[in-house]
Amino acid sequence: MPTLTLPQTLIEQLSSQFGQRFSQGESNCLQHGRDESVHEPMLPSAVVFAENIEEIALTVTLCAAHGVPVIPYGVGSSVEGHVLAPKGGISLDLSGMNQIVAIHAEDGDATVQAGVTRKQLNDALKGTGLFFPIDPGADATLGGMAATRASGTNAVRYGTMRDNVMATTTVLADGRIMKTGGRARKSSAGYDLTRLLVGSEGTLGIMAELTVKLYPIPEAISAAVCTFPDIDSAVQTVIQTIQLGVPVARIELLDALSLKAINIFSKTTLAEAPTLFFEFHGSPASVAEQAETVQTIADDLGGTHFEWAARPEDRSRLWQARHDAYFACLQLKPGCRCFPTDVCVPISRLAECIAATYEDIAQVSIPIALFGHVGDGNFHLVVLVDTANEKEMAEAAWISQRVVERAIAMEGTCTGEHGIGLGKRKYLPLEHGNVAVDVMRAIKTALDPHHLLNPGKVLP
Amino acid sequence: MPTLTLPQTLIEQLSSQFGQRFSQGESNCLQHGRDESVHEPMLPSAVVFAENIEEIALTVTLCAAHGVPVIPYGVGSSVEGHVLAPKGGISLDLSGMNQIVAIHAEDGDATVQAGVTRKQLNDALKGTGLFFPIDPGADATLGGMAATRASGTNAVRYGTMRDNVMATTTVLADGRIMKTGGRARKSSAGYDLTRLLVGSEGTLGIMAELTVKLYPIPEAISAAVCTFPDIDSAVQTVIQTIQLGVPVARIELLDALSLKAINIFSKTTLAEAPTLFFEFHGSPASVAEQAETVQTIADDLGGTHFEWAARPEDRSRLWQARHDAYFACLQLKPGCRCFPTDVCVPISRLAECIAATYEDIAQVSIPIALFGHVGDGNFHLVVLVDTANEKEMAEAAWISQRVVERAIAMEGTCTGEHGIGLGKRKYLPLEHGNVAVDVMRAIKTALDPHHLLNPGKVLP
């Protein structure tokens, strides 16, 4: 049951404006009140399917007049409860806002509506020689990715959404439409509102359109897989690669359990041992040079089976397997959910952080896989739990807290790319201190005084 | 004369706390009330020379209690009036905060006090194999560079201060000390307060310490100079280089008048014609490959005298000449000041923007040189004026407005790297729209309700 009954006037207004695209139906509310994580569903009172900016502004304006919350929704692939409706209200589904507004190939940027997914954008770029590199595992919407400051496997080379959103068109809490940023590659003109919105999880405004950076498809790409005798030698290979400044495009660590899950799920025959996946981008000579450097490092650290995947179809299969790792792990324990962790630490602390995490893993009974974007110092635990089992949930909460507190003690962060949502709010003061959290709250209040945009998220 | 007489109590408090480091002396006030531009000096009421964060916090707290403005000051190399005191108050000189707090070579970051200059940081990095790439012409403080979101010649490859400040320790308007960001390479934990501070020009808080990214010194570096028959062919060379995705580290355009000024000032014998300066970073093979690609593009467009400077001393001389271009141009007209312009446009509009700018230049009598970081679409006019000559000042204002309005019409920005300060405030609504400016003002009011931090800057 939603926690809020909508005022009858609002129901009539939204029905009259949106017709079939306004729904109080149980299945729609259920679908929009849960995400991909262990968070218990929290249902919105109704769903509006918006198709343009004016409809977002209208919905926000009408809801504001009635003091009703609005929660933006993309495809629901969040894992920290961002799309849940703890106070009820309207789930504003933007998946119908899926128009590519403009591709400026000569400038290397594209403007898209917030509901465009990353794969849709890359499909639209075919023939331009450009691509959009940010790739969280799911085929998330670009609006959702911007809202959570998402990244993924390519971030070590191409940055995160923070670095790649140039401009937005955003609906404010009072329904006004704001433009932020611009298409110049740099600017010193005023406060960086674009960066303030990126990562604000729909709590400061609803991004309706985004302009994002594109990159030339590298002349040459090659991928490699290398197996290690233990996690530490794999991690040391990562650290040395980064410290040498090799411009590797992707460098991903997967542990033995992740590989086992991938082999079952993707019908691959990869060695079930600590493994690094690499990808190199550049000219043919540069790619060869990078790969040679990394292979030398890996060899010195006991890496074996350095296997190449230069053919596009082999690379695709490899990276699809990597992207499926999350779902593959879920299949290890039918009916389970994932209690996600997502810490990121300075690279010099990565080996120590992962080693201590394995000591924690040894203390619990639940299966836990580890993988991550280790070139950035970012890794995830896939903690597999039966949400109805109190002991498992307690173990998961314990290990999550241990990992987060350790990462913060190492000058890292409680979330590298998932966001705060509902799940990490308690760690925000621990990571940033009370003064910074006070300032975040002051900004929230200045922009959304009645706390109607995605209430209950980010701020503790 | 300052516009504000300090309350006697505040004078006594600051005198007692700072002794000789609190000064109401005319020469100190004069030095701190002007910058490198045409802006008329506006003197602070007094100067405080702070040496640590607690002293910044104390000064801000005492001034807040009396409603007295505080204007942070680095080395005064700003060109948009950032350090001027239109309402009097305390100029808070941070140049004594010049400690390098920590260098984490293994993580590629360093924490410095705000008064450390970029050259000082690079000197301190000797022997680590790392460098800090951001290089506005002046040897500015890192605090000042962060405040104005500065960049310079390397930005096309390494980004601007926006991309390279990872964390700050900032004193708020009420004297509280806030930590923002962290040392993890990425984070999705809460609002991006670091990015909000970078480019806020001391109006939201006073950055006292910064953590910045460092980069491995490239294995190979080479520089080149190439002369073109006209500006357009030089600009087309830039555009093609960028569109091909060549990871050039620097690509700078200088026009014939800039070269003439450089030859006089730096005693060089460069051809006095439209010229590109290049620098390539990477492995020896990659540098050779990049240079070859660019030379082919330049050759096709009529570039001549493609000259190499692979020896470090030759490269240094070349880039010193480039960095001295601003001061060299000033010498063309003894006693003059520079009316700066600093627009940045999407690269596809750069040729058109520069061509139209030359048509404007042809309309005025004052000497105007053009150079810039054209790989980003950013260029400057050095408009040489006698500030006492009304006709010259009117011509300068006219051309500045023409260039800014054109850049904004081309989806560019009124300032690529100098900042808004006093000089560009009127263009902020034109560039970002009234709603965004309202939101900036709401944030300013939330963080500094009495508008005591660098009042009169950024917001119109």
UniProtKB/TrEMBL annotation, chains A, B:
Keywords, alphabetical: FAD, Flavoprotein, Oxidoreductase, Transit peptide
Any GO BP annotation: lactate catabolic process
Cofactor(s) the protein needs: FAD
Pfam families: FAD-oxidase_C, FAD_binding_4
GO MF terms held by the record: D-lactate dehydrogenase (cytochrome) activity; D-lactate dehydrogenase (NAD+) activity; FAD binding
Keyword Transit peptide appears in the UniProt entry: yes
InterPro entries: FAD-bd_oxidored_4_C, FAD-bd_PCMH, FAD-bd_PCMH-like_sf, FAD-bd_PCMH_sub2, FAD-linked_Oxase-like_C, Oxid_FAD_bind_N, Vanillyl_alc_oxidase_C-sub2
Domain FAD-binding PCMH-type, first and last residues per copy: 40-217
SUPFAM superfamilies attached to this UniProt entry: FAD-binding/transporter-associated domain-like, FAD-linked oxidases, C-terminal domain
Listed EC numbers: 1.1.2.4
Family membership: Belongs to the FAD-binding oxidoreductase/transferase type 4 family.
PANTHER family: D-LACTATE DEHYDROGENASE, D-LACTATE DEHYDROGENASE, MITOCHONDRIAL-RELATED
Protein name as annotated: D-lactate dehydrogenase (cytochrome)
Organism annotation: Candidatus Dechloromonas phosphorivorans
